[in-house]
Amino acid sequence: MLRTAIRNARPERPLRIPKIPTCLSAKHASRPPGARRSAVTQAAPTIPASADDRALITLFDQPKGGPSSSSWSHTGLFGHPSLTHPRALISLTNATLLRAQKLTDRILRARESRDELLKVVKNLDRLSDLLCGVIDLSELVRNAHPDRVWVDAANHAYEALCEFMNVLNTHVGLYEVLNAVLSDKDIMDTIGPEAIQTALIFWRDFEKSAIDLPPEHRERFVALSTEILVLGREFQRGVVTPRPPVSIKPEELSGLKDQGMGVRLKLQARFTNRDLLVYPGSLQAQMIMRAAPDEEPRRKLYVATNSSTSEQVEILETMLKKRAELSQLVGSKSFAHLTLDDKMAKSPENVNHFLNALMDHTAPAVKGALRSLSIRKQEHLNTPPFPIIQAWDRDFYCPPEPPAPPISLPPLTLGTVFMALSRLFRHLYGISLRPVHAVSGEVWHTDVQKLEVVDETQGVIGWIYADLFARKGKPGGAAHYTVRCSRRTDDDDDTGDHLEEVLDLQNIQESIEFEAVKRHRLPRQEGVYQLPLVVLLCEFARPTLTKGATVLQWHEVNTLFHEMGHAMHSMIGRTEYQNVAGTRCATDFVELPSILMEHFLNSPTVLSLFNPDSTSSSARSPNHHIDPCHAIDTYQQILLAALDQIYHSPTVLDPNFDSTLEYAKLQNTRGMIPYVAGTSFQTQFGHLFGYGATYYSYLLDRAIASRVWGNVFSKDPLSRQLGERYKDEILRYGGGRDPWKMVSAILSSPELESGDAHAMRIVGHWRIEDEVGLPGRH
């Protein structure tokens, strides 16, 4: 029922989906009688755009090395004055637990008063936000903070609050109160559509937690949930466990096309006069797959890379069976049925309609690409016509090429890219990025830079903390952390929490002060709001005195645009209820704004914004690069999405279920490249744990984003009118409106509004454009 903020991360190939941990969210502070009233801050006015542009370049390309260190200016993490040391996070956790219990007690008494019943949804949202305000901050700290003491404190806070949250998620009393609200027509007619959507989210999450089952069944549900979590962690460890090395004979490296590492490997083999041991996944292995004319070393490496131990297969299959058992315990036909009930897809049958249509639509391009590779193989090996392309042939006959922009561009420094992003947002939404000095103690590392997100009429509407450079101990990849969601706070009625009944008011003071920092009044908008705060984590090379500013490769530019798509969704999706704010929406909808952002990089008009001396478009010669094998990679991703559905269907409860046989059957019946005997790739399909039954999501959002780009933005990508329309139809709702209604509105396609099997088939027949022609990024 209670959800934590969404961390949107770019996963490894073959799919970039957000890594989305789910928790309860409620971000607000209650104020007992006599307590100091929370300050309501007025957002700062905007400053000239040209000054912001230059300031962004200076901030990221000539960093000064940390926040302001003025002796009279000091605060705690994210501007919370109390969070100056790890012990304060423990104190805040304890205070939050006390306040959460008082708010829970209030909700449980709600049926004593009609006025309180009217406030149940709001108070559940507050409760969710209260807990996740600390949980989400702790999630960021335990992943990004370089100080082990802070990390330990964050782990403690995260675990203690999640444990309390799990109790709430199976609390029969809370469920009964919510049911009383949902069954009261007068209340439902009064509270409004966004509140109803929030209430339904709570209710569905309760239902999925076996809340209405007998106690012994609920105990079994909890036990199964714990077992699945443990098995999932074991499965994930197996995914990243290195595979044993492969023995490559020196003669098998004859004719290597690579003139760098290939030459060194051949010299090593010649001087040692013994076989080389090459680890699957290593740089040497990747080079051999691209450059070895002899297919035997490529075949051996492919088999080794995609092999598993019997224990790894057993862990996966046990996890799948436990999921199926848990689903049937709560009355669902399968784990896919349980999971998809509140997604855009609604059911596994609809997912399969989409995937089948997508396969049929993509198959001709795949056959054409494979025919071209077969001709290359025939010419290379002098074989009879059209030899079969095997799995180990793809990279050799169609080697991945470095992604490149569609037009020639000067070196893209980090500051230049942020300037272009700010200019793009200003064109589309009247929103810009403004650097601001972080106060001493506000950030966790000197690399972190703070940006205000400034609306031209409302002033500051949120903040982005950019932690962009690689360092030891920092997670790899890129991710968008929602540390604070937006929500309306002036109608909280926190006096009804009766915090004055707490024996020692000082015990909850830290929580009260923590919440007080978040409240802001925006010009031209009714009410007081908690404004969003997000963190971007990336691993770019840091600038140096000798080499100068960080110059991003093209795929890194795309990474930044992708993550900033999530950030803008968080900023603009400012709802009254934090459970539906910004990126708190369906898993199979959340990637739409971020993927769409990448499409803007296809436009020479948009790319002209990278020129610091120009704010208008200029014609540039196109430099289009299309990966001829892109269709093969997309098709393979569709197959994996289909495999995910099979693994989460009732099939897994068959005593004879064999995950390897199911994979082989799918590859040989629907695939275009034959299954390789002896392989079991499924144990490296890490998304089976975090995205069980929802792997199709990125494909669905890619199809929709391609359509939105082509039908709405492609001809006039800097149009303020179109940007405002997209903001009003999609971004501002967060998860507070049915995604199909949003998609049908922006595309003027009423036939999609029902989101049924027909709608999924329609989307499946849309062309999936590669956002920027990047090979192997999906």
From TrEMBL:
Pfam families: Peptidase_M3. Its EC number is 3.4.24.59. One of its GO terms (cellular component) is mitochondrial matrix. SUPFAM superfamilies: Metalloproteases ('zincins'), catalytic domain. It catalyses: Release of an N-terminal octapeptide as second stage of processing of some proteins imported into the mitochondrion. It is found in: Mitochondrion matrix. Its main location: mitochondrion. InterPro entries: M3A_MIP, MetalloPept_cat_dom_sf, Neurolysin/TOP_dom2, Pept_M3A_M3B, Pept_M3A_M3B_dom. GO terms for biological process: peptide metabolic process; protein processing involved in protein targeting to mitochondrion. Keywords: Hydrolase, Metal-binding, Metalloprotease, Mitochondrion, Protease, Transit peptide, Zinc. Cleaves proteins, imported into the mitochondrion, to their mature size. While most mitochondrial precursor proteins are processed to the mature form in one step by mitochondrial processing peptidase (MPP), the sequential cleavage by MIP of an octapeptide after initial processing by MPP is a required step for a subgroup of nuclear-encoded precursor proteins destined for the matrix or the inner membrane. This is Mitochondrial intermediate peptidase. It comes from Lentinula raphanica.
